[in-house]
Amino acid sequence: MNIDNYTFEEFKDYAAQFHGYPAPGLLIGGYMVAMAKKALPEGVLFEAVVETKKCLPDAVQLLTLCSVGNNWMKVINLGRYALSLFDKYTGEGYRVYVDVAKLAPYPEISSWFLKQKAKKDQDTEQLLKEIKTAGDTICSIAPIRIIPNLLGHSHMGTIGICPQCKEAFPQEDGVLCRGCQGEAPYTYLCNDTDRILPQTKILKAEDAIGKKALHDMTQIVPGKEKGPLFVAGQTLEAGDVCRLQQIGRFSVAVEDNNPNGFIHENDGVKAFAKRMSGNNITFELPPKEGKINFSATTRGLLCVDKKRLEAFNMLEDVMCATRQDATIVEAGSQIGGTRVIPLYIADHIFAEALQRLSTPLFSVAPFRKARVGILVTGTEVFKGLITDKFIPIISKKVEQYECTVVKTEIAPDDKNHIQQSIQAIKEAGADLLITTGGLSVDPEDLTRHALTEAGLTDALYGAPVLPGTMSLVGRILSENINTHPTQTKADVSTIRQPQNGEMQVIGVPACALYYKTTLFDILLSRLLAGRIITRHELASMGEGGFCMNCKICTWPKCFFVK
């Protein structure tokens, strides 16, 4: 049986030239490709999906125009010996696979395919003979339609230069190329002993009298004290020798000329601190023990550029650690620290580190003292059949942020009435609307629909957080305002506070009546800080989004949604 336009022997030689030897899988693959091509309408432009990395992709490349290089062939390694050829525009085509049920007449193929024999025990001559005899009769074919995300070709997008390796890469991969993020399949043939280290002047403690200490020297009293006993630049005196020896310093590094090509830890960390700190962040100088800590100057939401922080920490000899993004911080509380790890940092590493700090790593967005409107929906509450408990709960939560409740409304399950209540809250000057109830899939729950008709935009409904999954967040715009978010150079996140007549919206599900902390608490702090909430941010809350419902709630000091 021929393989496409080749005799079996011709294709066997062709395969050997391309593959190195006539692999059985490649020969069977030839029959599979020919079978799929024959089933396609004549003249159709087709592409391929192959479900194994072994041999079969080579058969596709030998008998079609499809290859990995031109992106007409995609290899999705499902571990199955199968391929699909399909119309590149409609996705309709055929899948061909080796059908195990059809292998019984061919014992050598069967034992090879199912790996029942070691390679040394295989009868290669008989195996090739059976493949030639069987042809495509050991295969089955079925019509298929390829899933939409495999149709068409995505464009590479913007190309940037990786700040670490200086090579070009798609910027959608992040601040660094994927190789420098740790995915490189190789290591360079060098090790730490190949690094050029600066020469420092080391003297015995008794010989260092009158010299200046090159770096801070720490004293630790377990459980009581840890801090510099001697600081960089301090002149050592005769009385210091004993104290140095008591902390294990029998030799001391002293100031000399800075080695060429290196930056002292204190000089390096000061330069980093200036670039890392954004709005409402401060730090103290001089560095202590080669380290600088950062503090918030106001109460607010800590915003961390996690990608840029990770890129900075990918560099050797430097580090920065912060509290978690979106943490509520108080004025004066520490939020992170940075240091140069060795005593000296090489010039080229220092330069790369500064390049990665082209924008701040963290800032604090202060909380707005919002004017809050609370809307409770539900006919049973409106008619007084049950007493409302939402308004006091929500009021207490917002007052903790020094917000003012300017209007409360209770509306029945009627869209028109709900819209009128929304308008009344808006006219009262509210810039934050908190609505409760009517957010589930119950047909009588009309709150979402009424909000939409009242002008709700940028709405996000549902999040992977328990409790609070059926929460809603969005905004209702006023007329003739600038809808574009703003971001100052010293803001890490895009901050946008409501403008005149605009209202942020949070929809709170009924679970907030029972649980002390829900997704509402997470969203409230972000909105009061003016942070724009995205679907990506909500999706990322799945990790850590399961509340343990502790008897004594310690949030936000616990792990729940950090």
TrEMBL record:
Boundaries of each MoaB/Mog domain copy?
373-529
Q: Which InterPro entries match?
A: FmdEsu_dom, MoaB/Mog-like_dom_sf, MoaB/Mog_dom, tRNA_methyltr_O, Znf-Tbcl_FmdE
A Pfam match: FmdE
The superkingdom of the source organism is: Bacteria
| CDD domains assigned | MoeA_like
What is the protein name for this chain? Formylmethanofuran dehydrogenase subunit E
Q: Which organism is it from?
A: Desulfovibrio litoralis DSM 11393
